[in-house]
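Internal tracking record. Fields below are filled automatically when a chain is submitted to the structure queue. Please do not edit lines marked as system-generated. If the sequence contains nonstandard residues, flag them in the REMARKS field before resubmitting.
Queue: standard
Priority: normal
Entity type: single polypeptide chain
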Amino acid sequence: MIKYKITKDFKQVEKARKEVYNINYDSGYYMNLLKEGKIVALSIYDTDFLIGSCYVSNSCDTLYIEQIFIKKPLQKQGYGTKLLKCVIDNKELFENYFKTDISMSRFEPTDEASYALVKKMGYRKTNGVLGTMKKNI
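SYSTEM-GENERATED OUTPUT FOLLOWS
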């Protein structure tokens, strides 16, 4: 059974992110942001098995999708789309978390697959921030 939740197990999520991106070092950057509440990790699970997560921050009424990652054996099965859709469809969750109104989401694709994903979800290129795409939510 697929479920979504705000993850408190930062070590598990960071371990998954490092495996997906083949990162062999630990700068502590995202771990610190998670602990400080400056970003939140929304994760997708099959029962209790972590499939993937996305890191979300906010600034000036905008949700920023900082990272989105799905474990390699489970990629290209629609989980990234489901996770991003969950963020967009549940903006109230993030408004409550960040204690602010939100009207837009932004994402910076890092490859053709992530570009295709957000374009399919209705994101459009912006005029100013290199590579950033946005969507009113």
